[in-house]
Design goal:
Chain lengths: 289, 488
């Protein structure tokens, strides 16, 4: 019996070693922050993977992750070489990976906004400036690592009220992503929420918002947000000029349906410097050291 | 009545929980909690088994991670059990089992990334600590007689294999296969942080409100667990153990430089890493303690104590459901189904569901912990009462419950409850990842902000709290002379 057990164990251990040997060395892998419903993301980025694979003549694979930090870690650990980051996650990732570069952003990302939305039960009406009426309501951010769902709204809350969000609101939560924020405020789980304006506009256009229950009460000023960031060492791995080819492929993406799924009009060039304002805000709030 | 120490202890814990309730954040914040709950149950009764493509793969991966993790854990645990008399081994084992599987997974994710090793080690490491303890207890309780009868000069290994193993083999096997079921639950929830098990799809379906899809996943999971006795046969075990590692999926390759970086840079406190002064380190540490560790500790303890008492109440209410002393066969069968469902659903999944439905507060966590743990204890106590033979003229109904059964099972009920105290605390910390402000909330926030130095300190504190509660529980069980068998 013991002999059996020992033999089986040795075989099992050998099995682990064999099965875990890397086999995907030449696949170009990318990921994206999980900022919306997973089904939508998988559909959208599978389309991007197919497109890039055709343009670049390499195997391209998209891997879905469960958190913003997981996307940053995978990028940092060189398990993915390209990522669709938010403003903040991009800044975090590029700090951790010297040589990495923001190569493209959506046309809308140069002037992005956060919408504050409120459930009808709060009685809040649209306002020009964020005003004290929102005090004491329940409030939800999106993900803890989100730019439009956490960083910028927190910045404006602190700037307006001179206090941390949990001092301004009676209860503060993190819904996880923008779609969740929308659904939670629509259902009245939270009185007020902050989300990515593009997600709101797209859901509104698709007719999947119950406008009787929830409305936009305040729009933040603009700031830079989402971008494609690539590791600096891709040329070594995939051949000279690979980075330039990826950038070119992204900038010339003109598949209407694919762009619409983001939703972005087109992709335009971006640089690391474009995201300096985000870095400063993050440091000010204490999210970045 | 108060002359019994068990009764005094019970009321003491009840009082602590009542005080805790004053401080706890208990609320239903959703406008329509029952409508959503209704939609959820509608989803469960109208499951959609064909919506998610990866369903079969997810089940396969869940089983594969469970088998590989539990196998590695039991082998390592057995080796540790052999040297368990060494204090350092006991401390090491207590430490590794004090850290929850999900925390281990979050740690390994930072440097192994989405490689199968992350999931395997996340199960194997804490399980090794648990196996070490339980195996060593089994070995200690073994009959010493055969050992004394061996001829002088028998080698250590022969003596061990021929005089000790045969006596304990059955108990080791029973316990290990029981742990396999626990491993299945652990494996499932690893999906919530991104590993390719059932939890991955469950999280996706739930967060999008696709309740029929979620219902299908849950039903498959219950069937998988409930049918374990049929598909896990001793003769098939070697096949499963050898086969499992091949079905973990390929994940993404490990980059070994990341491992070094994690241990030499990432987890070094920021002020030391940046060569700042000792004063800076002091500030860093006190900020972490006062703003995160202490509030997290407080909430974890408050929630644990409340959940512990509700677990006990629920177990006492639930055991008659399956006890042969009450009701007819129909009631007992439905009682069994209810208890199987609540005890097979990990607290994490229950809490996740309830948080979606009721909004964030401690309430979903309390209910989830009480349902799961109360289900486990209720099941065990119910089974125990069924073995009690009552006189034919014994009282019936409430009197039978209060005067015949409760006094007979109360000691073992308390033993189970105190045994699970430490388990409930470990889960309470983990539920923070879902948004309840326990230690897990701050650990998750630190990880989301890519501050692993802070995360590691907080995980360490969580582990110490767990070891403390484990010791206290053992002390109380010793004082009350309560004995129990291990549960998970």
């Amino acid at each position: 019996m013991m002999n059996h057990l020992i033999k089986n164990t040795v075989l099992a251990l050998a099995g682990i070693v064999i099965s875990t040997t890397p086999v995907l060395a030449e696949t170009f892998v990318f990921t994206a922050i999980p900022d919306e419903d997973e089904t939508k993301l998988v559909e959208r980025f599978q389309g991007v993977a197919d497109y890039l694979s055709e343009e670049l003549n390499v195997d391209v694979r998209y891997i879905p992750v469960k958190s913003y930090a997981a996307a940053v870690s995978a990028f940092r650990n060189n398990q993915v070489q390209l990522a669709w980051f938010g403003g903040l996650s991009g800044v975090q990732a590029r700090r951790l990976v010297p040589g990495s570069e923001a190569i493209a952003q959506g046309e809308e990302d140069a002037a992005f906004r956060t919408y504050f939305i409120a459930h009808k039960s709060t009685g809040l009406e649209p306002m020009d400036e964020l005003n004290p009426d929102v005090k004491g309501e329940t409030f939800t951010f999106g993900s803890k690592g989100s730019t439009s769902g956490r960083l910028m709204p927190e910045f404006y809350i602190r700037e307006t009220f001179g206090a941390a969000p949990d001092e301004v609101f009676s209860r503060v939560g993190y819904s996880g992503n923008h779609t969740r924020t929308l659904r939670l405020v629509e259902a009245g789980t939270y009185g007020v929420g902050a989300l990515n304006f593009q997600v709101w506009e797209k859901e509104l256009e698709d007719g999947s918002i119950n406008a009787d229950d929830v409305q936009v009460i305040w729009k933040t000023p603009t700031y830079p947000d989402y971008q494609w960031t690539i590791r600096g060492d891709v040329d070594e791995k995939f051949g000279d000029g690979f980075k330039a080819k990826v950038r070119e492929a992204l900038l010339s993406l003109d598949d209407k349906a694919l762009l619409e799924s983001f939703p972005r009009t087109s992709f335009i060039p971006a640089s690391n410097d474009d995201y300096e304002p985000i870095r400063k805000v993050a440091e000010q709030i204490g999210i970045l050291d | 009545m108060f002359s019994y120490p068990t009764v005094r202890a019970s009321f003491l814990f009840l009082a602590i929980a009542c005080v805790g309730l004053v401080f706890a954040d208990i609320a239903i914040t959703t406008v329509n909690p029952w409508r959503d709950l209704g939609r959820f149950f509608l989803g469960v009764v109208t499951p959609d088994f064909f919506s998610t493509e990866g369903l079969a793969t997810a089940i396969l991966r869940t089983v594969a991670f469970a088998f590989t993790g539990v196998t590695l854990g039991s082998v390592a645990g057995f080796l540790l059990a052999l040297v368990y008399r060494w204090r350092v081994v006991r401390m090491f084992s207590a430490f590794i089992r004090a850290i929850h599987e999900l925390f281990w997974a979050l740690i390994f994710l930072q440097f192994f990334g989405f490689h199968p090793l992350t999931g395997v080690l996340a199960i194997a490491i804490p399980y090794a600590g648990i196996f070490a303890k339980v195996y060593s207890e089994i070995l200690d309780e073994a009959d010493q007689e055969p050992l004394r009868l061996l001829p002088p000069g028998t080698g250590v290994i022969s003596a061990f294999l021929y005089a000790r193993v045969p006596d304990v083999w059955d108990r080791i096997r029973t316990y290990t296969s029981y742990r396999l079921e626990c491993g299945m639950r652990s494996s499932a929830i690893l999906g919530f942080v991104g590993l390719p098990t059932i939890g991955f799809y469950l999280e996706a379906s739930f967060s999008q409100g696709l309740y029929s899809e979620a219902g299908a996943l849950l039903i498959l999971f219950y069937v998988l667990i409930a049918t374990i006795p049929w598909w896990v046969k001793p003769k098939l075990l070697p096949v499963y153990i050898i086969g499992a590692p091949f079905f973990l999926g390929e994940g993404l390759p490990i980059v070994w430089g990341n491992v070094t970086r994690f241990f030499t840079q990432d987890i070094v406190p920021a002020p030391i890493r940046n060569d700042e002064s000792w004063a800076e380190l002091g500030l860093w540490f006190s900020d972490l303690m006062f703003n995160e560790a202490l509030p997290g500790l407080w909430n974890t303890v408050v929630l644990t104590q409340i959940a512990l008492v509700f677990t006990g109440l629920l177990a006492l209410l639930a055991f008659p459901l399956i006890s042969s002393h009450f009701g007819g066969p129909v009631r007992r069968v439905s009682g069994h189904v209810f208890l199987v469902v609540v005890r097979s659903t990990p607290e994490y999944i229950l809490a996740y569901i309830l948080l979606q439905l009721w909004g964030p507060s401690m309430l979903p966590a309390v209910v989830a912990l009480a349902l799961h743990n109360g289900g486990i204890i209720g099941h065990l106590i119910g089974r125990q009462t069924s073995m009690i033979r009552l006189r034919s003229d014994a009282s019936v109904g409430l009197n039978r419950y209060t005067f015949e059964l409760i006094p007979r099972v109360y000691r073992s009920f308390l033993a189970f409850l105190f045994y699970r105290w430490e388990i409930i605390m470990r889960e309470t910390a983990i539920l923070g990842i879902l948004g309840v402000a326990t230690l897990g909330f701050y650990i998750d926030s630190a990880i989301q902000n890519i501050r692993f130095d802070r995360a590691m300190v907080l995980i360490l504190i969580t582990a110490l709290l767990n070891i403390g509660i484990d010791a206290l529980s053992r002390f109380i069980r010793g004082r009350l002379a309560l004995k129990t068998m291990p549960t998970c």
